[in-house]
Amino acid sequence: MLPATNIAPHISWFKAYAARERAKEHGDAGPMDLKLQHTMAVLENARHTAEGERFDSRTTRTCLLAALYHDVARFEQYLRYRTFRDKDSCNHGQMGVRILKRERRLVDEPLEARHTIMAAVGLHNRFALPPHTPQQVELVANVVRDADKLDILRVMDEQLSAPGPYNPTVVLQQPDDQTLCSEAVMRDVREGRVAAYADLRCVNDFRLLLGTWFFDLHFAASRKKFLTDGHAERLLRGMPDAAPQAATRDYMLRLLEQAR
User: At what angle do helices 135-160 and 57-69 cross, to 10 degrees?
Assistant: First the structure.
């Protein structure tokens, strides 16, 4: 019998499912390949957090399965809508729950774990979890949310810190205008709050927003990885000193340094 934390059969199914959906794409399948890579990275981030927090084996298994399946809908979403932007297509968290039910992926898991995994998948992309979310769902969803943020930071760092041009879709089509700034985003930094995408006005605001994700990490292991990976720090330091956000950037960098 495999140990509880060994989810190799689920990983094999997920990779086969991704390959099956990818075969339906007759154009550029690159975005789907990136989602598979992202999923595997999020899974490893979730494992890192679960081990760092010393969760029991059943809780760890539930976290790993929720991390593996958190973006299961991304492949069908891309095939159907040609975008990963939920507001222009569908809620990929809720769509993921429907896919898990349709594919009967969790029928061999205990009922409570099955419900927790599906709830975490359905909630992972919310700006904030709803009030009165059950404790176990909240824990598992927050492991996934932390793991997701950590890998998105990696992707953003690779895109924005590279010497060549980046794809504008990575920064949600925000203008790379050094004269623009969002007072709301800078206020969120100063008040220790996660900034909202709706308040972005430019790429430099986006860099600040990514730094504020530190305020929304729920586990010591996640916060440590955020700091040691260095992605947020590089993204913040990539902002020109002449930008109107520079003083706020320096404040955020000091906060991260003090947290080490």
Answer: 50
